[in-house]
């Protein structure tokens, strides 16, 4: 953690929490060199049963990285995670659909907390990760060119990202700028100094909108999905969301709708039947 993760990973603290939550309770009493593939399999199965596929994959991935570092330092002869079962992963493709967007936006507008309301709308209008929106600073906003420059230190790719700001996003920022209190666009009372715990507010949004199976991150996915529905190409969507790998955009942020598929196969069926009819007429 000290000599590798903290120096190289922006999300090292998340790894530390996951280690303490999922791995430490099971393996902390076993000497490093005594950990076997069977131990790994048992741990992953336990996490899978108690927490689900996502945490199970995370625990296995984290263990694999840890043992790779241990192997490099000759603390263990080999990585016992290699060759163990890796739970299948079904990418979440949930986004706010056309028949839901009106109710969701109305629910957000009805929020008593202006901070929460503006935060959720900014997540939607920019498609940025909630952590980046929460830690947005005024120095990152270029009002002249209507862009938000996310520093590389905050970005997964370690490269800065320039986010073009839409008209609704700029309206929110201008209003908040006129009433700014400190360096944060979304100031908070916690140790971080910025807004960091929107859970209760989001539960209120779900209650008001009647949409229960939606997460804050789905707002980010919604921007990409709606761009996809509008016919924007995958490269543009990938750039909008700041993805370094276009495959991520394709897999997670451009969900395939059933209706376009239905329309497509109907067109093909119609074409086939038309050709059949033409052939029958030609043979008469």
List the helices and strands and how they pair.
Elements: H1 5-8, H2 12-27, H3 37-51, H4 53-72, H5 98-109, H6 114-126, H7 130-134, E1 141-142, E2 147-150, E3 161-164, H8 167-178, H9 199-209, H10 217-229, H11 234-241, H12 246-252, H13 258-283
Antiparallel strand pairs: 1-2, 2-3
Helix pairs in contact: 2-4, 3-4, 5-9, 6-10, 10-11, 11-12
Description:
The structure is a single chain. This protein is mainly alpha-helical and 284 residues long. The protein has two domains: 5-72, no CATH class; 98-252, hpI Integrase, Chain A (Orthogonal Bundle). Helices cover 57% and strands 4% of the residues. The protein contains 13 helices and three strands. The protein has helices at 5-8, 12-27, 37-51, 53-72, 98-109, 114-126, 130-134, 167-178, 199-209, 217-229, 234-241, 246-252, 258-283, and strands at residues 141-142, 147-150, 161-164. Strands 1-2-3 form a three-stranded antiparallel sheet, with no helix packed on it. Helix 3 runs antiparallel to helix 4, helix 5 (98-109) crosses helix 9 and helix 11 (234-241) packs across helix 12 (246-252). The model has no long low-confidence stretch (mean pLDDT 85).
């Amino acid at each position: 953690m000290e000599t590798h993760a903290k120096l190289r990973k922006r999300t090292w603290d998340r790894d530390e929490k996951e280690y303490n939550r999922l791995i430490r309770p099971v393996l902390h009493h076993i000497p490093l060199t005594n950990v076997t593939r069977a131990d790994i399999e048992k741990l992953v199965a336990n996490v899978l049963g108690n927490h689900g596929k996502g945490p199970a994959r995370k625990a296995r991935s984290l263990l694999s990285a840890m043992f790779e570092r241990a192997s490099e330092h000759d603390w263990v002869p080999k990585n016992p995670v290699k060759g163990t079962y890796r739970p299948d992963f079904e990418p979440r493709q949930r986004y706010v659909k056309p028949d839901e967007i009106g109710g969701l936006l109305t629910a957000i507008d009805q929020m008593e907390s202006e901070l929460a309301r503006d935060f959720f709308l900014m997540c939607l209008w920019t498609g940025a990760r909630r952590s980046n929106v929460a830690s947005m600073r005024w120095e990152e906003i270029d009002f002249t060119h209507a862009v938000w420059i996310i520093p590389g230190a905050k970005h997964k790719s370690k490269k800065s990202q320039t986010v073009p700001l839409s008209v609704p996003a700029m309206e929110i920022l201008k209003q908040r700028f006129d009433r700014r209190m400190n360096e944060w666009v979304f100031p908070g009372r916690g140790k971080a100094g910025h807004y960091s715990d929107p859970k209760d507010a989001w539960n209120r949004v779900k209650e008001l909108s009647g949409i229960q199976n939606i997460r804050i991150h789905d707002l980010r996915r919604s921007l990409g999905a709606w761009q996809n529905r509008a016919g924007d190409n995958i490269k543009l969507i990938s750039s909008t969301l700041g993805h370094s790998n276009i495959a991520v955009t394709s897999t997670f942020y451009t969900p395939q709708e059933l209706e376009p598929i239905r329309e497509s196969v109907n067109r093909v069926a119609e074409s086939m039947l038309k050709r059949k009819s033409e052939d029958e007429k030609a043979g008469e």
